[in-house]
Every structure is written in C-alpha cells, then in structure tokens.
C-alpha cells in the first residue's frame, strides 16, 4: 500500500502523495496543494521543508550520521583524500587509480589565474576581510571566462568550468593570505598534489625551498573532507537558488560564499576562536561568564547548536580527537584548547544546553587546528569555503542536470489591504 497524506481544509479532504527516500525518510508532496485548495504551507526558516530530491549526501541529525554518496564521514576522513572526495561528490563514485590520476591532472593544469586578477587585490584596503575578497575574486572569474557564462551550453563546457573553479580556488585562497601579509604571491607548482600545492602557495616563501610536512598535509585533507558537503544547508541552498535562475557557476558559488560568511553559518569558526581568546584575555580562562551570557541571550555560544544535529555533530567528534593528535604531532601547545574543552564540558552539563539539544558543531574545534597550522583567524571561513566548494558544485550540477524549476518561495502577506492613492499635497 503506497502512503498518502490526507489534509482537511474547510471541511474538504485533499489527498497528497508521500515521497520516500532510500534511507526511509518521508515527505508529503505539497507541490499541487495550492492549485487544488488555494492554501500554501508555511515554514519560516525552512525547518521542515524539503526543497529537492538529492542523491549526494545523507544526514541523520538524531543519530549523528553523515554520509557522502553512502560512505560514512568517519571512513572518508580517516582513509580518503580531499581529491578523492571531490570526485566522489561530483561524479557519484570514488575514483579508481586511473580516474584519480586523470582528475588530478586536469585539476593541476587549471590552477593558474589570469595575471590581471592580481590587480583586483590592489584596490582592497588593508585589513579587508578575506571572505569579501573571495566573493569578489570568484565573481571576477566570470569576466575572465566569458565562454563559461551559459550553464546550458553542453556537459563538457560545464565540466571545464567546474574544473577551472575547483583548480583556481586554492590559488585564490592562498593569494588572499599572501596579499593580507604583504608577501609576494607564489605560483602553483605542478609537482604538488591539490592540498600540498595550496599549503605551498600559502606558507611557502619565494626565497626558500618548501618542505611539506605530512602531518599538516593530512590534517588539511581531513579538515577539507569534513567540510566538503552538508546537504541543503544555508549556503548550498543559496547556490541552488541562484543557479536555479540559470545564473552561471561563478555567480552561484559567489552567492554561496556570501551566505557562508554569516556568523550563524561558516563565519562561526572565526567567532569561536575570537570567543576563546576573549575568555583567555578577559576572564582569565574562566568559561562561566560566557556560558551565563549565552543563557541570558546576550551572546551566542559560537560553535554550539545546529539546525539538524540534535544529538551530536559527527564532524565535531572527529575534530575534537584530531585536535589533540595534530597539535601534539606538530608540537603546538595552545591554552585555547583547554579553554575550549572546559567550555564544552560546562555547556554539556548545563540544563539550558541539554534541554535545547545544543552540542558542539564542526566549527567548535576546527579553528584551533587552523590556528596551529598557521592560518590567521580571518582566513578560517575561506578554508571552510574551500572545503565546501565541491559540495556546492555537486549540488549545483545535480540541480542543473535535473533541470529543476526556478526557486521561488511564496509568502503570507500581512501589510495594508488595498487603499486609494493620496496626492502629496493632501497627505498629512
Ligand atoms: N548559544 C546559545 N543559545 C543557542 C545557541 C547558541 N549557540 N544555539 C541555539 N540556541 C538557543 C536559541 O536561542 C533557542 O533558544 P530558545 O528556545 O530559548 O528560544 C534554542 O537554542 C533553539 O535555537 P534555534 O536558534 O531555534 O536553532 P536553529 O536551528 O534555528 O539555529 C544555529 C541553529 C546553528 C543557527 C544556532 O544554533 C546558532 O546560531 N549557533 C551558533 C553559531 C554556530 O556555531 N553556527 C555554526 C553551525 S555548524 C556549521 C555550519 O554548517 O555552518
């Protein structure tokens, strides 16, 4: 028996189809409800609204499960590389050795950016935020690749645009950090893999040989994998929404970066570190005041809470463990780690956080690792964006391949009802 939902409106029943996913998630399909009954459904913040049918990422917030294309995040973080995960998200399968080689070859051979892109940096005032620069640079790529503006051209052209963007992201991110420090930018080196190349361009130096530290390369791979996709979150939904108007990929991803920048979303990783530093510098490492202020709604406890995880965020669990390991391996001892653990302990034992099911999220420990690796705090959200890029693109590609309808929510209007226009002389 196939399930149907019955909704009664003004005494009249309407039968609505039920959709079931491969993990037995269920949805009531209301797409025809307005045409049949005149009613829309209302759900501010899309807390209970499915906007698409997707086969990329599965997430069970109650059980703390996250899988990309069926693979557990724990296995991918432990055993895979970021380039493998990019391939998995984009094309649905982990690559075999030949596929990976070909994929990495293409990525490696699109890393350079037009020389004139560097000139854009010259107009940014000192101290301008890296996320604003990243948005601008991604949008600017559309000017350098006018042949990429039509997302409906053909699959080969779309794939080339995708590879260009994936390949240039580390180059741009590294340029932002180098420009911020006033250091000369480094050109990508084809001898390095994707992640090592990024680390070389970010931490290398024109006057010295760069020696990659395998611990740092591994840590970076893990962080990028953990951020690579998270189904219909705020920035991904933004990318899909913008792309649904058939805007080009650069415009769609630039919009995703804008959405990620917000402190309730990816911008939280910067906020967490600043909050921990605040506790260290103002409260002598005592976490009580910040917890009390969060409970009084005077501030958010950044890195805590999640719209869908109501048990634990599996990414935070992995990062908490990795944090100790990575800091020990690279010989960094950071008092902020002890403050973070104390803060977590205090919040997890406090009824306010227990009742609201607020647990540490991916942003809680990531910043401590980024800091230990040598990134400035203002770059943290750029690193999140670099990790999320293959997820955004895969979701955009899936939507375009299905030729989904333009995204266009409805509303309930509560403004004035119709009234006559009054000439200015007669207005009081
Ligand atoms: N600190 C203090 N109180 C909180 C927090 C927090 N971090 N998060 C939620 N609450 C409270 C909130 O005030 C509300 O309380 P009440 O029931 O008394 O009104 C209750 O918990 C439910 O919260 P909500 O705002 O309805 O939950 P949401 O699903 O709309 O928001 C969230 C989720 C992530 C935006 C929110 O938890 C938050 O702002 N957290 C801090 C920012 C953060 O760490 N963001 C990173 C999210 S994970 C990475 C990513 O994907 O971006």
Widest sheet, order of strands: 1-2-3
Q: Let me know the largest β-sheet.
A: 3 strands, antiparallel
Any idea what the radius of gyration is? Answer: 24 Å
Strand residue content? 5-15%
Q: How would the global form be characterised?
A: globular
Instruction: Work out the number of β strands.
Output: 6
Helix content: 40-55%
- Mean pLDDT across residues: 96
Count, helices: 18
Return the structural class: mainly alpha
How many angstroms separate the termini?
65 Å
Ligand species: carboxymethyl coenzyme *A
Unreliable stretches covering 5 or more consecutive residues:
none
Tell me the series of helices and strands, N- to C-terminal.
Answer: EEEHEEEHHHHHHHHHHHHHHHHH
Name some characteristics of this structure.
428 residues; globular
What does this structure look like?
The protein has helices at 33-37, 73-79, 82-91, 97-108, 117-122, 130-144, 155-181, 194-203, 214-227, 234-243, 249-261, 268-282, 288-295, 314-329, 335-348, 351-355, 363-373, 380-401, and strands at residues 4-9, 12-20, 26-28, 57-60, 65-68, 71-72. The protein has 428 residues and is mainly α. Helices cover 51% and strands 7% of the residues. The strands form 2 sheets. A 3-stranded antiparallel β-sheet has the order 1-2-3. The mean pLDDT is 96. A hairpin with a 2-residue loop joins β1 (4-9) and β2. The longest helix has 27 residues, at 155-181. It is built from 18 helices and 6 strands. The chain is globular, with a radius of gyration of 24 Å. It binds carboxymethyl coenzyme *A (CMC). Residues 230, 233, 264-266, 268, 294, 300-307, 356, 358, 361-363 line the site of carboxymethyl coenzyme *A.
